[in-house]
Structures are given as C-alpha cells and as structure tokens.
Write a structure and sequence with these properties.
single chain, Endonuclease, Chain A, 12 helices
C-alpha cells in the first residue's frame, strides 16, 4: 500500500526520490519503495528523512511508532532492536560517542569496523578525553584461548586473532593519553558493548556467526537495576580481569 502521506509531503515540498535520497543518505530506489510500497525505513534513516521534510517521523511512518511502543512494552530502556549489526549505520556508533560527556566504555574482541568506517575514531576519543570524558576500551587478547575458540566457532580460523591484533594496533596509539585506558581481556565474550554515558549499543554474540550478522539492541538507562545496568556491571566485571596495554 502506498504511503500517501509521504507522497503528499514530498509533492508539496518539491522533493523527488533522488533529492530526498541524497539527504537521507540512501539509494533513490529505497525512497521509491517508501512511497509506492509503503516500506518503513530503519529508525535512524526515518528520523533523518522526517527531519529533512520537516515532518514528525511517527506521522510519516506510523508502523515505526508502533514498533517503538512495542519495544518500550518489552523494556522501557529499549530504544531500538536491529536484526543484525550490519543494519546499524556506523554513524549511529559515532554519533553516540560524540554525545558522551562523562563516560565511554567499549568491550569487544576486535570491532575493527569502527576504525574502518570512521578513520578519525582515535581523534574523536582524544577530543572526548580532553573534554573530561573517562574512556575505557577492552580489546580481545589474540593469544587467549577464548579468542582462539571464538575463531573456531566462527569458522574464521585465525581471522579473529588477526582482527584483535589489528584493533590493538589502532588503539595502541591512544596509550598514555590522559583520560584513556586501553586493556586486553581473555574472557568468553557474550556481547560486544559500546557505552556512552546513559546510552549503549549491545551486539549479541551468536555461536558460529560473525558479530556483524548478530542482533544489536540500543538501550537508554532510565531506572536503576534495569537492562542497562546489567550490561554496565558486566563491563566492570570483565574490566577488572583485563590487562593494561603498554606503550611502544
């Protein structure tokens, strides 16, 4: 069923599929599907498109509003649920880190996709630290048995160990920077965690599946003792076992 509301708003503002696609950073075919087939874009894309058009996102895509209400019914801290990490634009991670004022925590095996998608990541972290943000980053120890086991489960062999070494190469440049602490851990990691103040992106780990194809939930803390604090406590427990990365 066509999205008549979206079609009318675009017509009134003189927007074409191509011009809206350029602003929303998607392919024009995606906009065509929104208009003609009534497809609902991902949350970040929907919000960007609605802001561009000067409209309320829930008015343009009521299904998105229903999904958000359903998520809140499951947990008031759940902002969004993504079927796989590949569905989350790298800008969502970067924007969350940019907004941090007090604390950034990252717990991963490697997550080299962040540096690949945003080469200024180290500069961003330096800027946040200089502004008073406490930053803790825990990367997988490539020599640990748990990291090597994860590689076997993913059927990537030594791939994950190589990615851990590459992540350490990226982050080692931050060792010695005031406000930034880099450590290695050898734990069995059930989730990759990306926290910025009271927001967190949690990337589930699924046996035999690379993290990019596993689900992600976006959390925002609103009460004590909820999902957010569960993952914050998990980070603290792993951090306590991790080993500081030395300068070279």
């Amino acid at each position: 069923m066509p999205n008549e509301r979206l079609r009318a708003v675009m017509a009134a503002g003189g927007w074409t599929h191509a011009t809206l696609a350029a602003k929303a950073e998607v392919d024009p075919k995606s906009v065509e599907r929104w208009v003609n087939l009534g497809r609902t874009p991902r949350r970040v894309t929907a919000m960007l498109a609605a802001e561009t058009l000067g409209e309320d996102v829930n008015a343009l895509w009521p299904a998105r509003s229903r999904q958000a209400r359903a998520a809140r019914a499951v947990s008031p801290e759940l902002v969004a649920l993504y079927e796989q990490r590949a569905d989350v634009p790298p800008s969502a991670f970067v924007d969350m880190l940019l907004q941090a004022r007090e604390q950034i925590d990252v717990l991963v095996y490697a997550a080299v996709f962040l540096h690949e998608a945003y080469p200024r990541l180290n500069e961003l972290l330096r800027e946040r630290a200089a502004a008073g943000c406490a930053i803790r980053i825990a990367v997988g120890d490539p020599d640990s048995s748990n990291v090597q086991q994860r590689g076997q489960e993913e059927r990537f062999g030594h791939g994950i160990e190589s990615r851990c070494r590459l992540a350490l190469m990226h982050y080692r440049a931050l060792t010695g920077v005031s406000g930034i602490d880099i450590r290695m851990h050898g734990t069995t990691l059930y989730n990759s965690l990306y926290r910025a103040d009271d927001q967190a992106l949690v990337n589930a780990h699924v046996w035999g599946v690379n993290a990019y194809a596993a689900p992600v939930w976006h959390l925002r803390r609103n009460t004590g003792g909820g999902l957010f604090d569960t993952y914050a406590e998990s980070f603290a427990a792993v951090w306590a076992t991790a080993t500081p990365v030395q300068e070279v």
